[in-house]
């Protein structure tokens, strides 16, 4: 099950914790990858961890929209096609609403939502011709719940869900599915920085009693990328230990 | 021109799965041939590939009938 042999996937934000786990999961099932991110060294380390086979490094700063437009072509040429797009890259610029700067709002929307829109638009042509495609957005539980101090981030993540549902309806007849994965609290470098008391406070709000792992997010992604998920589109899979049930 | 016309009509027949005799110059892709807006995008992609022309979005929007497509390609291909 979930065999991706011969499939070609572009993953943004692959240098991060969740992104690198997604890369490993897809690669492990046979996919060829273009891994994108801002930190070339981290991408090179990931590529060598994957054994260097079936993996191409395509660094890109998603806040530079010209670079965003160039990325799908570069990735597609490197891999010889593009079947799966994982819009995983995201940034935060937290601030309470009344103090939030225009730049903080715009930068988060640009990287988290506009870049995903442009990348999705660019990859659709090839997917339409191939009559097969998978677009997966990594959103967040925050996009559904809201979170104080994260109005910009929550708006971008909610926007991604609405965008995906609309696109899913447009292209479903062409065997292209568009879905989201919404992580809850996941163990990353960011949560490792919290002290024990803070970590316990977070875990106390989660029925599963622990933080999630990036591998658990990657597993949901792998499912959505697979042939087996062909009849699933416009959905958001919540991977949050039961913190929110929708 | 006639060669372009035949190739355009062949693409339309194949893509939309319609009878060849319905694909006249005046046939509208959407009103007469049952295309939806996504079919139109795909037809434009197919024309671009077949004839090696680039059909920008604003031009694509003006291509409503089979004849519109033939005329655009005839004027813009080598």
Automatic annotation (TrEMBL), chain A:
Q: What does the record give as the reaction this protein catalyses?
A: a (3R)-hydroxyacyl-[ACP] + NADP(+) = a 3-oxoacyl-[ACP] + NADPH + H(+)
Question: What PROSITE patterns would the database entry show?
Answer: ADH_SHORT
Under Enzyme Commission nomenclature, its number is 1.1.1.100
Which InterPro entries does this UniProt record tie to the protein? 3oxo_ACP_reduc, KR_dom, NAD(P)-bd_dom_sf, Sc_DH/Rdtase_CS, SDR, SDR_fam
Query: Domain Ketoreductase spans what residues?
Result: 7-189
Which residues take part in binding NADP(+)? Answer: 38, 88, 153-157, 186
Which catalytic residues are annotated? 153 (proton acceptor)
- An example molecular function term from Gene Ontology annotations: NAD binding
What quaternary arrangement does the UniProt entry report?
Answer: Homotetramer.
* NCBIfam families from the UniProt entry: 3oxo_ACP_reduc, PRK05653.1-1, PRK07231.1, PRK12826.1-2
Q: Known PANTHER family for this protein?
A: 3-OXOACYL-(ACYL-CARRIER-PROTEIN) REDUCTASE, 3-OXOACYL-[ACYL-CARRIER-PROTEIN] REDUCTASE FABG
Please state what the protein is called. 3-oxoacyl-[acyl-carrier-protein] reductase
From which source organism is this entry?
Tepidicaulis marinus
TrEMBL record, chain B:
* Assigned keywords, A-Z: Cytoplasm, Fatty acid biosynthesis, Fatty acid metabolism, Lipid biosynthesis, Lipid metabolism, Phosphopantetheine, Phosphoprotein
* Cellular localization per UniProt: Cytoplasm
Q: Where is the Carrier domain?
A: 2-77
Chain's role: Carrier of the growing fatty acid chain in fatty acid biosynthesis.
Pfam families named in the record: PP-binding
**What GO biological process terms are annotated to this protein in UniProt?**
lipid A biosynthetic process
The gene from which this protein is expressed is acpP
Residue(s) carrying O-(pantetheine 4'-phosphoryl)serine: 37
Cite the post-translational modification comment: 4'-phosphopantetheine is transferred from CoA to a specific serine of apo-ACP by acpS.
GO molecular function (one) = acyl binding
Question: GO CC annotations?
Answer: cytosol; membrane
The family assignment reads: Belongs to the acyl carrier protein (ACP) family.
Pathway(s) of this molecule? Lipid metabolism; fatty acid biosynthesis
The name this protein goes by in its record: Acyl carrier protein
Q: Which PANTHER family match?
A: ACYL CARRIER PROTEIN, CARRIER DOMAIN-CONTAINING PROTEIN
Primary location: cytoplasm
Query: NCBIfam families recorded for this chain?
Result: acyl_carrier, PRK00982.1-2, PRK00982.1-3, PRK00982.1-4, PRK00982.1-5
């Amino acid at each position: 099950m979930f065999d991706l042999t011969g499939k070609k996937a572009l993953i943004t934000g692959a240098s991060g914790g969740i992104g690198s786990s997604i890369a490993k999961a897809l690669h492990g099932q046979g996919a060829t990858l273009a891994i994108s991110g801002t930190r070339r060294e981290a991408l090179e380390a990931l590529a060598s961890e994957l054994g260097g086979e079936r993996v191409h490094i395509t660094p890109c700063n998603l806040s530079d929209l010209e670079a965003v437009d160039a990325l799908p072509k570069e990735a597609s040429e490197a891999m010889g096609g593009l079947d799966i797009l994982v819009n995983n890259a995201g940034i935060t610029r937290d601030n309470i609403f009344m103090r939030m700067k225009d730049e903080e709002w715009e930068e988060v929307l640009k990287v988290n939502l506009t870049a995903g829109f442009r990348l999705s638009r660019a990859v659709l042509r090839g997917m339409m011709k191939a009559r097969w495609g998978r677009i997966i957005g990594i959103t967040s539980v925050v996009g559904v719940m809201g979170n104080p101090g994260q109005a910009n981030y929550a708006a971008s993540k909610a926007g991604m869900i609405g965008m995906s549902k609309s696109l899913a309806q447009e292209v479903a007849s062409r065997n292209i599915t568009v879905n989201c994965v919404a992580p809850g609290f996941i163990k990353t470098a960011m949560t490792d920085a919290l002290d024990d008391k803070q970590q316990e406070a977070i875990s106390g709000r989660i029925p599963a009693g622990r933080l999630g792992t990036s591998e658990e997010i990657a597993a949901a992604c792998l499912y959505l990328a697979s042939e087996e998920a062909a009849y699933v589109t416009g959905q958001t899979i919540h991977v949050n230990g039961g913190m929110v049930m929708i | 021109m006639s060669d372009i016309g035949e190739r355009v009509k062949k693409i339309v027949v194949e893509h939309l799965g319609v009878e060849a005799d319905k694909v006249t110059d005046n046939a509208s892709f959407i009103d007469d041939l049952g295309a939806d807006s996504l079919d139109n995008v795909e037809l434009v992609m197919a024309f671009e590939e077949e004839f090696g022309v680039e059909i920008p979005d604003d031009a694509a929007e003006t291509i409503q009938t089979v004849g519109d497509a033939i005329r655009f390609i005839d004027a813009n291909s080598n």
